[in-house]
Design a protein that fits this description.
119 residues, 4 strands, 46% helix, 16% strand
């Protein structure tokens, strides 16, 4: 599976699997130059996220540009808000809510793109 920084949500297990796959290719001398670059980028990402105790079990990384939508979906999923199409719920400042939620998340750089995961 290819993992890149255009995805809104990434599971850390996909990153781990891709790193393992690329390492195996490197051991067999089959690694192309662009795959070596990918391996370096993914390894750097994994090293930044090593503070997560859930990294190997499935940590969710959320792309910064998607975080507002993620915050809204999370609020709906946990029942913090009901039908947001009704007043006053459609007046919620989701940008502010997302920024506030980030206090519980770590930020990592994935090849120039910020991703967030729960701390």
């Amino acid at each position: 599976m290819i993992v890149d920084n255009s995805q809104d949500i990434i599971d850390s297990r996909d990153i781990i699997a891709r790193i393992v796959e690329l390492h195996e290719r490197a051991e067999d001398d089959l690694l192309e130059p662009e795959e070596q670059e990918e391996l370096d980028i993914l390894t750097s990402l994994a090293e930044q996220a090593d503070r997560s105790p859930d990294w190997e079990y499935g940590e969710t990384l959320i792309r910064d540009s998607y975080f507002k939508q993620y915050a809204q979906e999370l609020a709906e999923d946990i029942g913090a808000v009901q039908d947001i199409s009704n007043w006053p719920l459609y007046c919620i400042d989701w940008e502010w809510a997302a920024q506030d939620l980030k206090a519980d998340y770590f930020c990592v750089d994935f090849d120039g793109v910020d991703y967030w995961f729960r701390n």
